[in-house]
Amino acid sequence: MNDVCLVNPSHGLSETFIPEDLIQDPTSGIWVCEVVLHAFIRLNNRLFNEWLEPLSLVSGYRSFIYQQKLFDKKIAFYQKQGMDETTAKIEAAKIVAVPGHSEHQLGLAIDVTTWSMRVLEDPLIISFGETPTGKWLLKNSYLEGFVLRYPKDKTHITHITYEPWHYRYVGIEVATVMKQKGLCLEEYIALNQG
């Protein structure tokens, strides 16, 4: 599996897919692919050098089974609000990836926040993108091979709502091209097929 593998609502992974090179972040205990952890550490070093608040990992690798639990929990939440099962599944899929269709299963996606936002009940909030760290990350994450996976202006292509906390490792070369051309991963792959 390469760093630019597309996983989205239309392109999934098997229930049994598990990355071979998972490693545990010693600070958070979260598992990610080894290349991601090293790039994440370098990214935090850059933030430190800019006198900005460092990033905290909130989520990394998720198994198919764990993603199923998250999806089912969101469905149950909507059903408690009075939605029927079909509508609840549709609404849940707008916020939580359907099992097998989450980039987290690749081990190449991370959800991040700042250390000060970790204390919030849900640290993954839109306002992260407006923090000095969030703004810096959007401009500079490509330097270590990360891209904002679900930008505001690409929801019509990704079919995922804007998530300023969700970054995907694609490697420095690909991330640089995506940044320079203003592409999301779907666009990059479409331009580079064949």
From TrEMBL:
The protein's name is Serine-type D-Ala-D-Ala carboxypeptidase
- UniProt keyword list: Carboxypeptidase, Hydrolase, Protease
Entry's InterPro entries? DD-CPase-like, VanY-like_core_dom, VanY/YodJ_core_dom, Zn_M74/Hedgehog-like
Under the heading Pfam families, the entry gives: VanY (PF02557)
**TM ranges:** none
Q: Which organism is it from?
A: Cellulosilyticum lentocellum (strain ATCC 49066 / DSM 5427 / NCIMB 11756 / RHM5) (Clostridium lentocellum)
Q: Which Gene3D superfamilies match?
A: 3.30.1380.10
GO BP terms: namely: proteolysis
UniProt GO MF annotations: serine-type D-Ala-D-Ala carboxypeptidase activity
Enumerate the spans annotated as D-alanyl-D-alanine carboxypeptidase-like core domain: 55-171
EC id: 3.4.16.4
